[in-house]
Structures are given as structure tokens and as C-alpha cells.
Predict the structure.
Amino acid sequence: MNRAFPIPRHSTVFFLSFLSWGLFSFPITLGAQEQEVEKETPKQIEIVTLKKNLNCPKGDFSWVREGEEVALKIGGQDQGISLKDVVRIEMAQANPLLDLDKVLLVLRSGERLYVNLDDGTEEFVKFKTQNFVSKNEVQQISLENIKALLVPKSFESRKTFNKFQAKFSQGTQSPIKVRQSQWNKKSKETADPEAKETEALEDDRLLTSEGTSILGLLLKVDSKGFLFENDELGEVQLSKTKIRAVEIADEEEPGSGNSTRLRVLVLMKDHSRFLGLPTSLKDGRLDFKSRGLGSIAIDLDEVQSIEILGGNATYLSDLSPTESVSKDPFSARDVQRDRNVRGGPLKIRDKEYRKGLGMRSHTSLSFKIGSGFKRFQAILGIDDEARQSSLESRRQGGGTAIFKVYLDGQVSFQRQLSFVDPAERLDLPVEGVQVLRIEVDYGPGLWIQDYANWADARLIRS
């Protein structure tokens, strides 16, 4: 806006005081004393391991691969902790806003990149990203490695965009189908006989900003937009503002992301994500081999968190249950992997969890775990979406459920939790146990918003 508001002289000191309180994000020079107060302290990171949590300045943390082992170091000192025993490393908060000038590349490897497009070719998409150490260098990726391209600016809302991109994300797993049990008879999880198999996409599909779907061939992507060929329209050049998404025809997917090999999932502050094999982390950079991009170096200042996959923890949401049972008298309700029961993020008392299971009452899952695991851990709670806003629903006991754990058929844990309770940490020994069963039962409010979360539910090898 080009409006000027006159400020009385006597208001100047008051206005500057407001600035010094940090109401604006840009630095204000107010003299030596104020500058010393505003001097930035070293950023702390939290390292969550299977046994304890560690805190240290970001610059003191590193790891180095030594053969098949990756050793964790703080201040140059070996901590006696293998990267296999690390769950995640929290480094910063994600930016709540998306940069609408960027395009989202969804790779077949499951990785996601928010990028600024550069002039590409018929074989490669070229781009720049602030996430790499070489920020100003033009990067490239083959069109064959891309599953979809999305333009966030062309969607009417962030919620609509998030729903649309979820179907392309390998990390977003399908729900666990739960069969209704008649007279308490258990039923094994099987494929739905009425479900239709998704047809492979033989042509590229372009979705315009108006919602029109066009089949054809994506010829080229560059800073000007998308060059697309259709039998009826011929070659058409469309700017980013005219396109919501382009889905690339199905190719052979890379190997499963559930490999037992040690890998890292790097979540960036701009909501990009990279998956690959760890090499080294030191001097403000993370070097690793990405599944979709090859060897890359990531700027640690742009990282939100690092999650360790294929270590000594196996998440239940990555396993297939041997039995999935619902005793609900009306209908079976599916269990959500890595989401709450409504399809949103797993969230307990304002803390969000990337891994876990979202379940409703009268539902149980059984897992045959066999030998090799020593403990079962989880963080239990009612999802934040179940917070009761009305007095009447509170009186009825809404937002309440009972969590149960059975080890070889015997109840080993039982706790009733409501939406007002803090998260409950669960840690049970399971060495020698053959079958682990988790169950959610009715609380006082029966089925009223019984959104039970088994966050970070995992089996520990050591």
C-alpha cells in the first residue's frame, strides 16, 4: 500500500519501543546495548534416541560413516551411539507458509522438492533450490524420475492442495482395512473383493486451473511453463498460472521404501523432503545419496528435522497386521497409517507426530512379531481434533477412549485417556512375545470423537 499515516513526534519513542519488542522480524539498530541483547545465541537441536534425548548446539553435532556403521558425535567426541539407535533429530520449525512462486516436484522415489524452474529440455527438468549447499547452481532431474508436478498457486486453498498432493506421496500409506466381526469372530485383513484395481496411467495427465483434465504427452518444462501435446489440441504452451498439476505416465517404481538398510528422511523447512543413504554430516552440511537425485549436499540451515529409517526401530504403521478386527455393531472403521482417523496429521496436545496409527473404538490390530524385538514403545493420546467445544459433549464423555495392549493374549496395559489428558508414554518389554495386539475400546462417550492416536508406535530391536 502507498498510504502514509502521519505519526506525532511524541509517539516516536513509543513506536520504536514496539519495534524493539520484536513485533517485526527485521533487525532494528537501536544502539550498542540493544544490539548486544539481540545477539543470536547458538541454535540448539534435539537428538531423540531409543534410550535418551540429547541437546546440543547445531554446530557441535556431526556423524561419520565408518564401514556399515555411522557414529554420532557431539563436539567432536564419540557419544557411543550408533545412528541406528537414533529416532529423529529436531533442528528447526517448518515454515507455516508455502512459497507460491515455486513448483512442487513429486519424485517416484517418494521425495518432494519445492523448486524454482529454470530453462529445461525435453529430457530434463532444470531448477534451483535453496536447500542445497550450492544454492545458485542449476540442478537437473530426468522427467522419467518425476511422478507429478504441482503448482500450489493454482489451488484455491492450502487444504485443497494438501489433499491433492497426498495421493502422490509414497509416505502417505493406504489405510488398514478392518473387517466387521460377527459374534466376535476374528477376520484376517484381505483385499476388498469389490475394490477395483487402479488402472495404470498410460498417458500424461494435465489438470488445468479450471479443473479440466487433458491426456497427452508432457514435452518440456521450463521457467515459462509447460509444453504439452494432445491429439486434438496439438502442442500447447501453458503458463504455470493455467495449470494445477501434471501427472506423468506410470513407469516402473523404484524399490520399496521399507528397506532394512539404514537411511535418512530429511524434512526441510520449505516442506521439501529427501530420502537416501547417510554419508556424513559436518561443517553445516549433510552429504548423502538421494534415491531420486543421486549424491547431494544439503544446507543444514534449511533442515527442519532428520528421521532415521531402517535402524533398530520398526514402526507398526510400516507393517501389515495379521488380523484387523472391528466389534462395532454398526460398521467397521478403517485404521489410518501415519494419520489420525479423520485423515489429518497425528497431533496430541499441540505436538505433531509423523509416524503412528489413528484408530477408533472397538477396533484391534494384531502383529506377529516373533523373535528379535525387545520393547514396544508408543505415545498414546486423543487427537487434538477431538477437543470438545460444547459443554453437552463434555458431559457425555466425548473425546475419550480406552487403550489396551495384549501380549500373547494377555492384557499387559490398559489406560483410559481423554482429550484433556497429556500424552501417555508406553514402554513394554516384548522379548519372547509372538503376537502383539493393540486395541481401542469405548470410553464414557462411546463413539463420540473417540480419535485414538498410537503415535510413534514402534518395536525396538535393542
